[in-house]
Design brief:
12 strands, binds protoporphyrin IX containing FE
């Protein structure tokens, strides 16, 4: 029998005790485990298996890039999400994923994204026109809606009936809530099946797909060309066959773009405003650096990008990700069998003293100069890495830069006594970001 050398960690019973603490406070518990065992540690999973958690940047790079062929996404999230939103980029693996990625990737090339800046800017301007002001503005729901609107408008550059948008938005948030509940309470999965919860969400998914199907049919019947993501999906052709995606595949990918592309962005925008509100000196530097900048200058403005990056360092929306080893593997003296799940703990890495200078302090300038951090591209993973790097990274950075720029030049921000907290669900969701917002004169 092969003997494996897992990283140190918790015994079977230790894991049980730790799990109780993880449920209460995952970030704190995972931080304590790293203190105790080091950057990589293992916990018991199932009767005999073990799972590895790591914030070692070299181990992360090994899994995501150097030996990526040996790793696929684990079924935990992909299956639970996939049964409602289908088999698209985020939820597929292997040859199917690769074929879809090759097909869709060109549509997210920076030059294509530039063609969407106009729609993004218009959406932001419309949104800011009625932006609420006052002593207690709850920022997260607003940022979530803005990010949703940007995805809707860049996907469908037409006015959709408000009822369709409502159904879509409700479905996206309800299905996410359900998947989170399901993942957090695996022992209740059978009950969710039996009680009809799963079936209910599947019916909602079908209703949403029906609405999207109608939009596609109208587009095809109109014969008009739009410069939006829907046209990109409709026009894309597989290299090998020259064929287009089927309608069901297009529906899958549309739903994936909604799920992957709005909550992540909404979270980052919320944290960015929260951090700027409590660091007026940084807000002033940003205002100075971005005064009168054009759209092109805004999306490439180094200080603005640094402000966004610093917020994703402290609060990476994808705070943890997982992979499963397809064959036995070893790294740096550790070895583990096929089937081992490896959790890549970006939140811990982004706040580790070993790699960042004064990691707990908010300092966007670290992204502009060498502030003594280790080589940054090797320790900063907001968009993941390797072949499954976020396909929407250029899209997201441009959208966030355009929004933050418009926002800070039109509104002033101040903190309130409400203390924000980071809630680690599938994404790291901000809660209690309540700010004083005033329109600038
Ligand atoms: C701040 C905003 C965003 C962050 C932090 C983010 C982060 C990520 C991360 C970490 C992954 C890789 C997950 C893994 O390796 O398991 C990912 C994948 C993905 N993201 Fe994003 N994302 C953002 C915005 C967007 C946007 C705006 C879109 C689309 C419009 C998008 C579409 C996708 C898709 C389709 C995937 C799956 C790619 C694949 O597996 O081939 N994301 N994202």
């Amino acid at each position: 029998m092969t003997t494996y050398h897992f990283p140190p960690g918790y015994s079977f019973f230790g894991t049980y005790q730790r799990t109780l603490k993880v449920v209460r406070d995952p970030l704190k518990t995972m931080g304590e485990s790293v203190e105790k065992f080091g950057d990589s540690y293992s916990v018991s999973s199932g009767i005999s298996g073990r799972m590895i958690l790591t914030q070692d940047p070299e181990f992360i790079d090994y899994v995501l890039r150097k030996n990526q062929k040996n790793y696929s996404k684990s079924r935990m999230v992909t299956e639970k999400l996939g049964r409602f939103i289908g088999n698209g980029l985020l939820t597929s693996n292997g040859a199917y994923w690769l074929r879809q990625r090759r097909l869709i990737q060109p549509g997210f090339h920076i030059q294509k994204i530039q063609g969407l800046y106009g729609i993004m800017k218009q959406t932001i301007d419309d949104f800011l026109r009625d932006f609420p002001t006052g002593d207690q503005v709850d920022i997260y729901p607003l940022m979530n809606r803005l990010a949703f609107n940007v995805v809707v408008n860049t996907l469908f550059d037409i006015d959709l009936p408000s009822e369709s948008i409502k159904v879509l938005s409700r479905f996206i948030s309800e299905v996410q809530e359900f998947v989170i509940t399901d993942i957090r309470q695996p022992h209740k999965s059978w009950w969710f099946q039996l009680s009809g919860e799963v079936a209910k969400n599947k019916r909602k998914a079908e209703h949403t797909r029906e609405i999207l199907r109608n939009i596609i049919h109208q587009r095809q019947a109109s014969g008009t060309k739009f410069n939006d993501l829907l046209d990109m999906l409709l026009d894309a052709r597989y290299e090998d066959t020259g064929e287009a995606m089927s309608e069901e595949q297009i529906l899958d990918e549309i739903l994936i773009l909604f799920i992957a592309g709005h909550e992540t962005t909404g979270n980052t925008l919320t944290w960015t405003l929260s951090l700027l509100a409590s660091h007026p000196e940084e807000l002033n530097k940003l205002l100075e650096a971005t005064r009168n900048s054009s759209i092109q200058e805004t999306v490439t403005n180094a200080r603005l990008l640094a402000v966004i990056n610093e917020s994703m360092r402290l609060y990476p929306p994808a705070w943890v990700s997982d992979r499963v080893a397809l064959e036995d593997d070893s790294f740096n003296g550790f070895s583990f069998p096929r089937g081992t799940i490896i959790a890549l703990y970006y939140y811990g890495l982004h706040r580790s003293k070993r790699y960042w200078k004064h990691p707990e302090s908010y300092n966007p300038t670290r992204f502009l100069t060498d502030e003594g951090d280790k080589e940054r591209s090797k320790i900063f993973f907001p968009f993941g890495g390797g072949p499954r790097l976020c396909i929407g990274n250029n899209f997201a950075m441009a959208e966030m830069a355009l929004f933050i720029h418009s926002f800070v030049h039109n509104f002033d921000l101040h903190p309130t006594p409400v203390v924000p907290v980071a809630v680690p669900l599938i994404t790291l969701r901000p809660k209690g970001v309540v700010l004083k917002v005033e329109r600038r004169k």
